[in-house]
Amino acid sequence: MPDTVNPENTPIVATGYANKPVVLTVSKDKFYETARSLRYGEELPDAEIHIPAEKYDYLIDVVGMDYGDSLGVIYYLSPSAQPEKVLALKTSTPEREQPELFSVQDLWESASVYEREVYDFFGIRFINHPDMRRIFLRADWKGFPLRKDYDADPAVNPVPLENELIADMERVPSVSIKMGDRVETISQLFEEDDYVVNFGPQHPAMHGVLHLRIALNGEIIKKIDPVFGYIHRGIEKMCESDTYPQILHLADRLDYLSGTMNRHAVCLCCEKALELEVPERAHYIRTIFDELTRIASHLLGWGCMCMDMGSITAFVYGMRDREKIMDVFEETAGGRLMANYNVIGGVAQDIHPNFQRRVKEMIPYIRKMLKEHHLLFTGNPIARGRMKNIGYMSREQAVSLGATGPSGRASGWHNDVRKIEPYAAYGKADFQEVLRTEGQTFDRYIIRLDEIEQSLRIIEQLIDNIPEGAYAAKTKAVIRLPEGEFFQRVENARGQFCVHITSKGDKSPYRVKFRSPSLTLVGALKAMATGAKVADLIMMGASLDDVIPCIDR
Amino acid sequence: MFSFSDLTHWIDSSLRLWMNDGWTLFVEFVLIGVMILVSYAVLALILILVERKVCAWMQCRLGPNRVGPWGLFQTGADMIKILLKEIVNINRSDKFLFRLASFIVILGSVLTFGALPFAKGLQVIDFNIGVFYLLAVSSLGVVGILLAGWASNSKYTMIGAMRSGAQLISYELSCGLALLSIVVLSGTMQLSEIVEQQSEMWFIFKGHVPAFIAFVIYMIAGHAETNRGPFDLPEAESELTAGYHTEYSGIQFGFFYLAEYMNMFIIAAIASTMFLGGWMPLHIPGWEGFNGAMDYIPSVVWFLAKTGFCIFMQLWVRWSFPRLRIDQLLRLEWKILMPVCLFNILLMALVVIL
Lengths: 553, 354
Hints:
Strand order of the largest sheet of chain A: 1-2-5-4-3
Shape of chain A: globular
Number of helices of chain B: 15
Largest sheet of chain A: 5 strands, mixed
Order of helices and strands of chain B: HHHHHHHHHHHHHHH
Strand content of chain B: under 5%
Mean pLDDT of chain B: 85
Structural class of chain A: alpha+beta
CATH topology of the largest domain in chain A: Cytochrome-c3 Hydrogenase, chain B
Oligomer: heterodimer
Shape of chain B: globular
Number of helices of chain A: 17
Helix content of chain A: 25-40%
Number of strands of chain B: 0
């Protein structure tokens, strides 16, 4: 990654250093043009900056920042053709009363939800964004909680005793610039005579508390509006007052089905910042745990998908096989769903003497059961009829929507972090990144079962070769990260899970941002399901397999 | 072979010794009514337990095993619970139609249940248009379902009701046409006559290929009539939470639940009566000794065994298959089952003529 020059008197500053994202700082006025040039791989507006010409068509994450004197946003970008490259595009505005920046939701579809999130937490309004509602908090919330001057007094925002008004949820404010004039508009989400049905927050197929408001035309979906925030716990805010080892426990509880992987991401990020040498043994154990978690998550995802299609037997089979993995976890880590096993520098304790034997026994069992699952469900003509030619997502769409993980790979998008930048012991195992091309519900279904097989292969290769030695590196009693910004991504069961940590050298971080792969998957659902039937919406939702606590954070 | 008509005639004649004709009829009506309602409820309870046990067995689970030995009293306890539950009044629902709907659903299934020949001589009423009657009253249920969906004034129930309207009315066609091919074969609509004609050989064997086709189609269409998976679109738990009975609570919900299980029994009973000989034992022409031995098994056991077999088939399908989508469901009926059925009747007519 070539270092770019830092010319004097130019608002664009680019710095790049090995193994870290290239950072490009842009002034507010040049931001949109720069973003567009990066998106389409054109020459940057400032001729003196030389970023290798790539189409940065994948927006990894958007991080809102309160720098104290100014409010800013960091856009993490990556070209889908060269996914190992990451670029951080930064911009900021000194305005604190009514901060406004230009929206890039017309360049990357996933920016649409990310920018709403930044607005919700920092109050930065995005010009030309058609929907500037709050995303997680209620419409009547006072203040912007992730700003450093936020008043957390419970008297300001008492616990509400009344429901949020539907009318408030449907009022969509937006800011745009038309003919040089700033126009504020308020539009209605649905038309007067729309037949709006609430799917969720309590609904058997919403896998949690996702709330979809759907305008129906008979059985056909006219419009979908996802409502988030029912399980919003303010984890990013909590992180700012917690120490790093405490943050690990919060990371587990984001996507509870890939808790181990999320925790792994935070550990890797801290270790990178501390420049800590993690023992090889810990890397192997972590990788095996990650893959076991992935198998458990995919089995549950498979079962839930079958159950959403009305086949409850398949769900019970999935749960039964997952139970075996949970038992292995329990023996070594003490926890089942939340293994709480990774710590900064390694793992919490050494593996149980039975661990290797039990994992090796489990591999042929799961292989056998996979055959049975295919027999029971994949070959079923009704199941095939329900999944084929439904919910098509092209590769371009998947990239633009940021639909990573198995969902994106079903559309043929190579986005597996385990292959892009092999972390832990992934570089030592020979496995295949399963890619499919059709991008239908059926592909997203079958790819999970195929990934289980690949995970089994990884475990098979590593389980007998766990090196001897320490299981964790020595760390200081109080962990303080050096000053700076750190970014780490890992592959969890649903896609790319990314951690951004800004540290000021204290024992707790200045700002933590988690990229939830599920959040963008809901965006993908919204894009896919418009015009489909209600029954197909459920199938698409199940095939994307999102976990709501990860979205709401 | 023991005929229940001996018993009923004895009751009738002994009652007539004590009272005049009018009172005799009245007492008999009350007796029959009580017996039908009791057996209706008891069968439903048994069926619920059976379903839970069978599905647990298919899913590698144990099923109910806490209340009584092997969980035998579980459904009894559930019944008591559901009777004691509060009936929730829904704001802005049509109260009268809302209440009425659950009764119509259960009425349709009790009326059908009453006309089944359970054993030799054990039939409440033997119409000469028995098949016609069964089809007519069993289709009453759809009125109740539509009313339930409409009167609840809820969006889920409304979608569920519209789906079930489309589904039940479509699949009734196949049901009727499949039974019609047996009527063509037997030349009568009287149920007792149909069973009697199968004393030589059951219709499913006697009617060659068309009878078998009709049996398969009847089982599929009948299964769809009961609103159970893979045809449970009107309820579609993962889409419409509970479909047309989302808003019902307590015993009113219990009625829908009861009717669902009894419809399953009724479909299985009609299938066994029309295709598998009803209460008629298995007879193979020429094998006198074998036939005589078969006659020692009571007719009610034969009936329940065949019905149980059909119910097991339904449970098997219910717990293995995923749900269809509404357009696939209607395509299956209008483009596959019904044309096959119509062709099948022609085939059956040919078989009868030749």
